[in-house]
Amino acid sequence: MTDLDAPGGFDPAILAYYERGDEDARLRTDPGSDAGNRLEFWRTQDVLRRTLPAQPGRLLDVGGGPGAHAAWLAADGWTVDLIDPVPLHVTQAAALPGVTARTGDARRLDCPDAAYDAVLLLGPLYHLPERADRLRALREAARAVRPGGVVAAAEISRYAGLNDNLHRGRYFDPEVRRMTDAVLVDGCQGGPELRLFTTAYFHDPAEIPGEFAAAGLTDVVTRGLEGTAWLMPGMDRHLDDPERRAVVLHALRQVETAPALLGASGHLLTTALRPAD
């Protein structure tokens, strides 16, 4: 979904992971698709629709992958420009109505200052293990958005791997347990741990406000997307039923900013503002 410096360009592990083409199907909302992925999609959509400025407007989707979110944002009335380092993703996103797509780096955006009403980083931060790179990406987003505009960024919780592997029973495998525990130390996944995902950084929720503030952003709010709903028995059944799904989303809104529950979510979504001039 996004990028990382490496000799000669992007981290080859990240590019190889996403060039497999799996990301285009990951956030599908069709009945029978993965319940956790559907919940992540609907909660991201729910939070963004409540926190982005009123459209029409211009939106930059940085690390937007094949355009799962760009598609509905364009349908909502946004003019969407998508940037991603994976050529396959750019080709897929460029075919979406109302979306333009090009290759690029979250830390070096090729756009003018204050060109957008909102900037999304729904993948870059969790593929940048170095704090300096994450701050570069956030500062670039702050530069690209207009004064008073919204920057929204996704993070993976430091505890996502532990929670998921316990839930799926994989944590009982000594090797999986060793790799999972290693990520808990500093949030960084690489080397042997790549068998669990790809090069990644998992945020401690408490460190997120400081990174946004260091990038010059204000009014920082971090929300947990899945909360503890992913533990519910029969989650597929609840999400397949629109009325029951609405109840699940309502429940998660009630606790989305509760500090004690942020680490229970696999994914976090942080919104902030570029200060008005």
From TrEMBL:
Superkingdom, taxonomy of origin: Bacteria
InterPro entries referenced in this protein's UniProt entry, alphabetically: Methyltransf_11, SAM-dependent_MTases_sf
Domain (Methyltransferase type) ranges: 60-152
Organism: Streptomyces smaragdinus
Protein name from the UniProt record: Methyltransferase type 11 domain-containing protein
Molecular-function annotations in GO: S-adenosylmethionine-dependent methyltransferase activity
Pfam name, any one: Methyltransf_11
Membrane-spanning segments: none
Coiled coil location: none
